[in-house]
Design brief:
The complex is a heterodimer of chains A (124) and B (138). The mean pLDDT of chain A is 91. Chain A has 124 residues and is mainly alpha-helical. Chain A has helices at residues 6-11, 20-46, 52-60, 62-90, 94-123. Chain B is mainly alpha-helical and 138 residues long. The model of chain B has no long low-confidence stretch (mean pLDDT 92). The chains are: A mainly alpha (124), B mainly alpha (138).
Amino acid sequence: MSLETPQHKVEGLGSAHSGVDHFKHQRVTAIALIPLTVWFAVSVLGLVGAKEVSVLIFLSNPLNAVLLGTFILISLYHMALGIQEVIVDYVPHEGVKLALVFCDYVFAFLVAALCAVALLRITI
Amino acid sequence: MADHPQKVAPRPLSPFLTVYRWPITMATSIVHRMTGVALAGGTLLIAWWLTAVSSGPETFNFFTSTITTPLGQIVLFGFVWSLAYHFVNGIRHLAWDFGYGFAVPTANKTGIVVFALSLLLAAGAFALAYLGKGGYYQ
């Protein structure tokens, strides 16, 4: 459900040109990240000082692999939204702003791909 | 009129950040943003860790030996504290979004709680690790 008015959609107003969806997604991902971050912190503390093989065993449990993948992907989306907010707040030049927001999302996708490939190499 | 030009008082300047004293709510707000940006860099740390695990013992040993140097530990503590701060203050922000805790005295108090609790969490995690209470998954 979009809370944008049709007029607003047409005009593309707002500094990010994306309306209230950005705000909503930022909050929804934040709520999802509360339990995921707790799980991540407990897991990482449990792997302190671990040898490579212990990490491999930990991630060979599908539940752990899926939770870690979910934590990373939602974090990266939350990050992309947040950095976008910082960019549109501080960069007045339209072209530079557009380029930086583009780079922001490219960065998020690259890190996501890096982690996904690593996770697949570990679990398959 | 031109013979007696009125002495013009200096124009009032628009107040900028530097003229305000720093209320705790202002500090928590900017630190939330700063830790958020820091955590964006932190995603690279996680990606590096995961890539190292997937690439074999040598790469993983390079990761662990780098992260356990004094500089590595400082960076890691910065990452852990940023995560703790962004986590705790993020919950405070969500409470505001639902309309709770907006009164100035409340926001001031929760601001102090956020700083204290985030430091406690980060220091606690490091204390557990250094005291050998971590590593329970190996």
